Amino acid sequence: MTTGTATALACRDVSVNFGPVAALADVSVNFAEGMIHAVVGQNGAGKTTFARVAAGIVRPDKGGVEIAGREVPVGHVGQARAAGIEIVHQSFALPPSFTVAEAMEFGANGSGSLYTRRDLERRWTRHLESLGVRVKPRERIRDLPVETQQAVEIARALVTDARVLILDEPTAVLSPSGIDNLFERLKVMQANGVTVILILHKIREVLAIADTVTVLRGGKLVEGPTSTAEVDAARLAASIIGSTDDILSETDRDALVGAAEDEGKETEPAHHAGPAILDMRGVSTRPDPEGPALENVALTVGRGEIVGIAGVEGNGQRTLVRALSHLADLTGGTITLSGVEVTHHPLSARRANGLRVIPFERNSEGLSLSSALWENWSARALLRDGVLKLISPARLRRACTAALQVWDVRFNSPNQPAGSLSGGNAQKLILAREVDDEATLIIAAQPTRGLDVGATAFVWRSLREARDRGCGILLISSDLDELFDISDRIVVMLSGRINGEFSHPYHLGEIGAAMTGADR
Amino acid sequence: MDETIIAILRSGTPLVYVTLAGVLAQRAGIWHLGLEGLMIIGACSAVLGLVQGGSIIVGLGIGIVLCVLASALLWFVIEKLRANPIIAGLGLTGLGLGGTDLAVQAIYGSQASVNAPHGLPRLGPAFGEYGVLSILVVLMPVAVIAVWILTRRTRWGLQLAACGEHPFAARSVGVNPARMRLAALCLGGVLCALGGAELSMGSLQIFAYGMTAGRGFMAFAAVIFGGGNPLGATGAAFFFAIVGALGIRAQLLFGERVPPDFLLALPYVATVIGVWISGKLRGGAKAAASFGELRDY
């Protein structure tokens, strides 16, 4: 820290426990005024908790927060906001049915009890224009594209006279060009005297924007704030990940921390895909509750091939998975699985044909959290067998225990509810169920989201092993580093259409352009 | 014609008050199935208060106090004891139906209906045929407009809606969702007390066990039909009232040829159809997906 600069935000000995888990342990850190600070760390390192403590949303078990040199009572959002701190959440916190103007108004302070719709729109149009956000104040939040939603959320955070703005993983939902725009916007805010604290997990982004970097690992402060001029990617990667050399190859590690070069490297001999396992031709669907309709999607996945689906979230990835799972209404096209046309077959028939799904929402679609581990694990076999086949819980429990041990799930008893597992172990349980010998096509939707280093590495290894056994794998991820690292081929989705296909070596610029449709 | 309009206003007004209470709760994120119970508590208190206390003010006052207390109880069970709002609401309905019956039993030693010497103040002969309507009928549009302004034209209303739709968003700007829900439920309690009083004292001047006869649930249907907008929900409540009045009319006209039970069932059939249509209009299943859940992460 350079002496002489005022401190915008200081945390003293902050500790937060969620049940037996320590999310933050004695974190003390000072952020200087007028800079852009990055806080980095792996999933589960306590970054979000840290941000929420600073914003007053989470009350720490111990410790204090100072804003601009003044002590602020912890766990009190109103006081923190009055002191000038605002937060933009990772999964945005604006009610989807609100119009943009309403979303601005509901968090504003001061008087203004009665309003007319026109008043409201006029007032907030000016505010939005001053921030360079181009959006109609009458539009509803849920109808906005992700990047505009984020811009609105930032504008929402600035309705008060914020001195410190915290953004929790703002880049996770953005396309590469969206990230550039965001960074431009943040620099303008910095020039206006706002202190920006960015929660990030990619080293590339840290080095591109931040003045200082602070690293959290396992809830502890590892280093920082250190000036970014003094660090390099390799050292940062080491402090973020710690000593886990044994489970990660160097390229995996770079992918994990977002330190890989822009030009993806040729990491391994290109995989030669066998005959197609999945062949979608001209598939279109009706508009789906979970995203835009598919339009004329043609997609193949060969034996022993990992095909990555890139795209900003909400561009039809969920509809694609639903169409493959017979949950979306097809209006045209054919789906062929291992040479059998399954366009009109129910999911059970498709599963019998080797389709396996690791769904987007691990806790609501992947598992029944209130059911026992063995029940969750046995679902595959139970669905396949006839409805009148007798079930032997004892035998299933034994088989489940054996399988979970093979898959390295940490558990006490097959009878414990799935909800008691950590995120990584829950995902391993799903893998144990979905990645079996009869699998021919595995759909992995965001399989590493929210997982820590070890679990992420485990998922990647499992998918690669399945590929090497001859499975076709369709990997959907919003993390380009992950896709670049393990996909043999990348397909970009935009508004329910396929907007480009890429093979090694991948170029961030090209794929980023395809994600936003900038090339059209 | 005037007669029909009077009939519609009489049966519609209690429904509108209770519907407004449901709208407030729905904005706060609670699907309020205790409306029926609150309504009958209001109806019973008004009559018993007048008979025992000798004054309509006492009756209304007791009704309002009891309904607010019952609403606060519902809030406590949902918010502090983490009960499912649907179950808790149904419990409150049971409490209201059973509790009022018990009160009548305890005081009069029988379950017979209780007659009041007079009803709510009337508009008076200056209004011609409409003079028989109670002052709560006139107050009803005022309540509708007030709730509309409160929920749709104030920052408080936006914050309330945020608590209902996305409590975490509300917490992030320093609003306490639990406190907002308490306010919405208690305000709804006052409205239910008025609705109940109008039901028992507006035209009948009588309290009988179970006299709400499902009106609370009809109001709940109007809330869903109106999609969270007080004006829409009021319209829906009147739609049900009109169907009911037409049912009675039809009974008089051709009760000979059509079974009367069928005509009496019309409002309930209309309720089912209304909810079905409103579901169709806004993609049905989507509204039901978050039914009774309070999302907070």
Summarize the structure.
The complex is a heterodimer of chains A (520) and B (297). Chain A is of the alpha/beta class and 520 residues long.
The CATH class of chain B is Mainly Alpha
**What's the helical proportion of residues of chain B?**
over 70%
CATH architecture of chain B: Orthogonal Bundle
CATH topology of chain B: ABC transporter involved in vitamin B12 uptake, BtuC
Largest sheet of chain B: 2 strands, antiparallel
Residues in β-strands, percent of chain A:
15-25%
How much is the average pLDDT of chain B? 88
| Major sheet size, sense and barrel closure of chain A | 6 strands, mixed
CATH architectural name of the largest domain in chain A? 3-Layer(aba) Sandwich
Radius of gyration of chain A equals 24 Å
Q: List segments of chain A where confidence is low: pLDDT < 50 over at least 5 consecutive residues.
A: none
The residue fraction in helices of chain A comes out at 25-40%
| Main sheet strand line-up of chain A | 6-7-8-3-9-10
Instruction: Give the helix tally of chain B.
Output: 13
The termini of chain A sit apart by 46 Å
Count the strands of chain B? 2
Shape summary of chain A: globular
Give the structural class of chain B: mainly alpha
